[in-house]
Amino acid sequence: MMFPDPAWQAQQRQHEQRRFREMNETSARRRRSRSGTGLGGLLKFLLLVAVVVLLVKNPELRTEAWTFAQHVWADVRNA
What does pTM read for this prediction? Predict the structure, then answer.
């Protein structure tokens, strides 16, 4: 009866570990690359469109938003 070669077994284990690590890294990259798509991305886009339309239709709100943004920017620069 022949027994498996210990060197061959070690090589197989290393190969399996490498494949497992590569599969995990690939799936993690896929999850990160899809983070801005789908329903979440659509909702963000719709919210942006709604804010732009609101600012276009209301000049007083647009002026207040611009003044607020200038104050925030000045605070950030001076901090």
Answer: 0.44
Alpha-carbon span 39 to 68, nearest angstrom: 30
- Taking the C-alpha atoms of residue 11 and residue 17, their distance in angstroms, rounded to an integer, is 10
Give the residue ranges of DSSP H helices in the chain: 6-33, 38-57, 59-78
- pLDDT (tens, 9 = 90+) of the chain, 79 residues, equals 567 788 888 888 998 999 988 888 887 777 666 655 678 888 999 999 999 999 999 999 999 999 999 999 999 999 8
How many whole angstroms separate alpha carbon 59 and alpha carbon 55?
7
Alpha carbon distances (Å) from 3 to 6, 7, 8, 9, 12: 9, 12, 11, 11, 15
